[in-house]
TrEMBL record:
Keyword annotations from UniProtKB, A to Z: Hydrolase
PANTHER family referenced in this protein's UniProt entry, alphabetically: DIENELACTONE HYDROLASE DOMAIN-CONTAINING PROTEIN-RELATED, POLYKETIDE TRANSFERASE AF380
Protein name: Alpha/beta hydrolase
GO MF, one example: hydrolase activity
Transmembrane segments: none
Record domain Serine aminopeptidase S33: where: 29-257
Pfam families recorded: Hydrolase_4 (PF12146)
Amino acid sequence: MKRLDITFTSQGKRCAAWLYLPSGSAPFPCVILAHGLGATRELRLDAYATRFVEAGLAALVFDYRYFGASEGEPRGLVKITDQLADWAAAIAYTRAHQELDAQRIALWGISLGGGHVIVAAARDHGVAAVVSQNPFTDGFTNLASAKPLETLPLLGMALRDQLQGWLRQPPSFVKVMGEPGEQAMFVSGEMKTHYHYLVPEGVRWENHISARALLHLPLYRPVTYASHVQCPILLCVGNRDTSDSPQAAIKVAETAPYGEARRYDCDHYDFYAGEIFEQTMADQCAFLVQHLLG
């Protein structure tokens, strides 16, 4: 196994990525991976990519523009159309790479990225398989489960940040993960445990995004694209996920022509480590090997 630092271009800006190549003869089937809301590839995506490479697959792991080592200003901007463009650019780069098989490309996304891979595969029927883990699939459903008294202050922050964006001023940030009493996208009394699962020791992560994303996420509904996904898609769903709706994720599996779902007794962050990580890795590797190497 070897890992290369590479870049590809998305709408004129560089996206930073790792390209993992397995041993053996090229061209290799490849899994493209990207993270969720405000997260970067250092937050355990290497653990997933390593398992896929050990199974005989190449892996391309990238950061969205405005995050991590990728270009783009202002930093911390979550713009759904831009992130979907980054996925399209990653697919185009993979197809053009001489050591990768253009006919055997899979998409892997988690949380918000788990929604993006549904949309990307619905738009690109050349994708061979999709894995969507604890995915963001329906902003309407997520908003309906939110507590109004907690969301109103966040709405004020989002409106202020949007105004600053129009005026070309620096953004106002909101935390992605927070403890009770903090203004954050996801508030939990177990935040420190969740943070430990997600962020490896020694990794510095900016735990915030530009607040204007809160105005656009409720309107984002990857579930409506499910019927257009023409390749096998595996949904890995936590029954106790309170960040993204498990019911909406199951609906994707039921609506997609070649959809299947695996349910796990866990919450949103249990997927990143421990027993649930091992279970999902076994299921995902078996799924990807079947559809890319079978």
